[in-house]
Amino acid sequence: MSTATAPASPDPRKLVLLGAGHAHVQVLSELARRPWPDVEVTLVSPHPQLFHFPMVAGYVAGRYSLDACNIAIEPLVRASAVTWVRRSAVALDANRRMLRLDDGTELTYQWLSVNTGAVQDRDQIELDLPGAREHGLFVRPFAALGALWPKVVELAESRARRVAIVGGGDTAMELAMAVRHRLPQAALTLVAGTAGVASGQPAAMRERLVLALKQRRINVLPDQATRLNDTELTLGSGARLACDVALIATGVSAPAWLQGSGLACDADGFMTVDACQRSSSHANVFAAGDVSTRQDGLLPRNGRAAVSAGPTLAANLAAMAAGRHATAHTAPARALKLLAYGDGHGVATWGAHTLQGRVAWWWKDWLDRSFVRRLRQTSPPDS
């Protein structure tokens, strides 16, 4: 393994994996099993571990340890004989095939694959919610939440805390119920925005989620958070909510380095890709997960989609390096959705079918643990 940051060789058979997200850890695992001859592979990622984000509510609820949710990157890098550059990207010029890193290094490539995961635009959030940077606990990147949440739990042992979760999406709802399980005496409010909770869910799913929140004594406010300080959260209605801890679980944004990259992006700034996970404007660039949008709309933009697309991405990168054609990733006609309630229950939906209770949690728990365990079992190839 190497952590050198010198400019890349002009070798025309160079593949750069930008980000160590769910799809790329599967690419590394595949490389460990079947190396690609005469291809120089470089991984660019500052993070030593991948946190399996679908387990975040289980971690907050106290059902998982931090270690149980993490996949270490170094064993995968070592097993796959990939060069690891532990830096972050700050700019990309897709026409010049050049990636600039945060230390000024410029990497050139023949092929690029992007799987950097979701980010929260803290500058924009601070504009919309002044005080968020200083007083809020952001959900992404996970490292800060992972380190600070045990301290919140410890503080709650001395007196009941007033906790607000800002956001109305899946992550915000899961976190609200996880916090209730972990801090049963807390005054807990979900500030869901003017659209309310689960606004994009099917009616049956939304009804179950609204009832689940109510049953767990979670106050849901269809209001906008507008200002945060160390003791209260101000709402768009003018009301003030006493708040000791604010979890910022708003939507994700495209990374800033995509701006001006030359890659085709959608209206929100995310890369657009075809069914082969290939850039719609640059055939030598691939992407998976939160950073990209499928043009056909058949794959959601989230970590679970990156998990499902990982094997196809690995196969297509191998095919490209071997001069073969890429194949389409077949998205399921009905996407399975699993949400945890934090207390050993959950809800699952598949098409028009909805299942709620312990079975839904067991199902989700088994899928998440299986993914982490499978990636940890990667071993160096036989010599």
Question: Would you summarize the structure shown here?
Answer:
The protein is an alpha/beta fold. The protein contains 11 helices and 23 strands. It has 2 domains: about 15-120 and about 255-335, FAD/NAD(P)-binding domain (3-Layer(bba) Sandwich), CATH 3.50.50.60; about 120-250, FAD/NAD(P)-binding domain, CATH 3.50.50.60.
Could you name the key traits of this structure?
FAD/NAD(P)-binding domain; five-stranded parallel sheet; disordered N terminus; disordered C terminus
- Amino- and carboxy-terminal Cα gap: 16 Å
H/I helix tally: 11
Might you state the CATH topology name of the largest domain? Answer: FAD/NAD(P)-binding domain
* CATH structural architecture of the largest domain: 3-Layer(bba) Sandwich
How would you describe the shape? globular
* Portion in helices: 25-40%
Sequence stretches where pLDDT stays below 50 over 5 or more residues: 1-10, 379-383
Strand order of the largest sheet: 5-2-1-9-19
Largest sheet composition: 5 strands, parallel
The computed structural class is alpha/beta
> Mind telling me the CATH superfamily name of the largest domain?
FAD/NAD(P)-binding domain
Radius of gyration: 21 Å
| CATH class annotation of the largest domain | Alpha Beta
Please, what is the average pLDDT? 90
